């Protein structure tokens, strides 16, 4: 039985056995035990006069214990129940002089160096429980709405984004010259997206989604970038851009509502932590909302839908701050929006989440459907408070001639993507989808400031530890 179940109180005055790790041990009597099932520690009271000295000596922070006793109402403050221990068994020792996660405040930078142990802290345990709940909510939503999960390749010979910033996969020794073909007989890389493959299955199963690891070889050592991260990519046949916007809004509201309902204790803790961190920032950089308030802002507000052209007009006529203008001024139509522009639209102008659509073709990918104006494509971005872009998607180009024209203009290899263009030759149809970086969603939901702290083992430039 885990500690979360014990706090229901149904086992009061009954014999119980619990297992977990020592957070603190006070006065040779009070053990704070945590098994990871919830934020709260379970106080276990030992009779030090009846407990062997060699056992007491091993009850150190980090040690794994099994404790049997009676669950009773607590006589002290801070907890409703406690266990009056009859026996304490040391399952795994922990040397107090070597164990790095001591009961004190540690910096996030320090804990990244101890990523194998940091989940034993309240902050990281809460973040990872919320991450698990979000993952469950993703699968639950798509299953309930008739989607089929597709496991798309991790190793690929194509570049879905046309960016070229990919990790090459090879069995060849780079120091040796050889005319022998590589393992797959061609150059292959770790995937940047499962979208193109998901499109092929949507055109046979109707509604599919991918949820798997993707890789970007961008040399970006920032708080927002990872080299390895997880992507959620639904794809739906016979959906146009309006359907796609409806799906994105409903999906996001659903998964956040699930976490708000099922992770209340962890979110309350993270909300308090978020407020403390925001208070350290200069006034003008602080979030206008608390963490839970920010989540409810998304779940309770209708998403405003605005074309890129309308947004540019709003931004060019805006005054984001009485004292200063945007750091990156909007000089002309066609500019790629920065986070400050996206946040202004969400937080200041509309006071609601925003979906921007119909972007200039020049700043979007080759597979997005061209509008009749010949200048814009049926793309969309969903913007959130505090972070800006959360989701990117589009209606896909279903017309073979238009797709080939775009591929040639953007120097995309037609022969490499022969199977992708085949979709337009055999039963082509309107279809649409979007991508959502899972870690970015976890970052937003937990209020953490660095994306390296919402994935168990971050992969970043010059770092592949653990």
Walk me through this protein's architecture.
There is one protein chain. With 466 residues, this protein is of the alpha+beta class. The protein has 2 domains: 3-101, OB fold (Dihydrolipoamide Acetyltransferase, E2P) (Beta Barrel); 120-453, BirA Bifunctional Protein, domain 2. The chain has 13 helices and 16 strands. Strand 2 and strand 3 (42-45) form a beta hairpin.
Per the principal axes of the C-alpha atoms, what is the gross shape?
globular
Note the run of SSEs as H and E: HEEEHEEHHEEEEHEEHHHEHHEEEHHEH
Q: Could you please say which CATH topology of the largest domain applies here? A: BirA Bifunctional Protein, domain 2
Count of separate structural domains: 2
Largest sheet: 8 strands, mixed
Report how far the terminal alpha carbons are from each other: 31 Å
Q: What would you give as the CATH superfamily of the largest domain?
A: Bira Bifunctional Protein, Domain 2
- Low-confidence stretches at least 5 residues in length (pLDDT < 50)? none
Radius of gyration: 26 Å
What CATH architecture of the largest domain do you see?
2-Layer Sandwich
Q: Please give the CATH class of the largest domain.
A: Alpha Beta
- Which percent bin holds the helix content? 25-40%
Number of strands: 16
Structural class: alpha+beta
What share of residues are in beta strands? Answer: 15-25%
Mean residue pLDDT? 93
What are the key terms here?
five-stranded mixed barrel, globular, eight-stranded mixed β-sheet, 2 domains, OB fold (Dihydrolipoamide Acetyltransferase, E2P), 466 residues, 23% strand, 31% helix, 13 helices, BirA Bifunctional Protein, domain 2, alpha+beta, single chain
């Amino acid at each position: 039985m885990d500690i979360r179940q014990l706090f229901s109180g149904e086992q009061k005055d009954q014999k119980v056995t619990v297992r977990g790790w020592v957070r603190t041990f006070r006065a040779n009597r009070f053990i704070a035990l945590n098994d990871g099932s919830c934020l709260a520690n379970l106080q276990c009271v030992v009779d030090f006069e009846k407990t062997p000295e060699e056992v007491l000596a091993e009850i150190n922070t980090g040690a794994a214990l099994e404790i049997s006793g009676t669950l009773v109402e607590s006589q002290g403050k801070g907890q409703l129940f406690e266990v009056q221990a009859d026996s304490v068994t040391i399952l795994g020792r922990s040397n107090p002089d070597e164990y790095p996660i001591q009961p004190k405040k540690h910096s996030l930078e320090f804990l990244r160096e101890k990523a194998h142990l940091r989940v034993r802290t309240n902050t990281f345990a809460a973040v990872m429980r919320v991450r698990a709940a979000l993952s469950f909510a993703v699968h639950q939503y798509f299953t309930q709405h008739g989607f089929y999960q597709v496991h798309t390749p991790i190793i690929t010979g194509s570049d879905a984004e046309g960016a070229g910033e990919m990790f090459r996969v090879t069995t060849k020794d780079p120091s040796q010259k050889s005319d022998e073909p590589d393992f797959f007989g061609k150059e292959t890389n770790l995937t940047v997206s499962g979208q193109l493959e998901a499109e092929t299955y949507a055109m046979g199963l109707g509604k599919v989604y991918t949820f798997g690891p993707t890789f970007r070889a961008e040399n970006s050592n920032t708080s927002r970038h990872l080299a390895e991260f997880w992507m959620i990519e639904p794809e739906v046949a016979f959906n146009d851009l309006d359907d796609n916007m409806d799906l994105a809004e409903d999906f996001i509201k659903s998964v956040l509502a699930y976490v708000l309902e099922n992770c209340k204790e962890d979110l309350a803790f993270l909300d308090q932590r978020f407020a403390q961190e925001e208070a350290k920032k200069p006034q003008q950089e602080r979030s206008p909302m608390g963490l839970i308030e920010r989540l409810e802002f998304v779940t309770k507000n209708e998403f405003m839908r605005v074309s890129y052209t309308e947004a540019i007009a709003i931004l060019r006529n805006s005054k984001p701050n009485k004292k200063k203008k945007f750091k990156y001024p909007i000089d002309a139509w066609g500019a790629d929006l920065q986070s400050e522009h996206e946040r202004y639209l969400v937080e200041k102008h509309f006071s609601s989440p925003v979906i921007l659509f119909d972007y200039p073709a020049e700043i979007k990918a080759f597979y997005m459907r061209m509008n009749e104006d010949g200048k814009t494509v049926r793309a969309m971005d969903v913007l959130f408070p505090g972070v800006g872009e959360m989701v990117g998607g589009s209606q896909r180009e279903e017309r073979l001639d238009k797709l080939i024209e775009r591929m040639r203009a953007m120097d995309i290899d037609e022969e490499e993507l022969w199977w992708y263009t085949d979709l337009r030759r055999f039963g082509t149809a309107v279809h649409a989808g979007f991508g959502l970086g899972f870690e970015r969603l976890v970052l937003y939901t937990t209020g953490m400031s660095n994306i390296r702290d919402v994935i168990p083992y971050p992969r970043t430039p010059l770092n592949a530890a653990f």
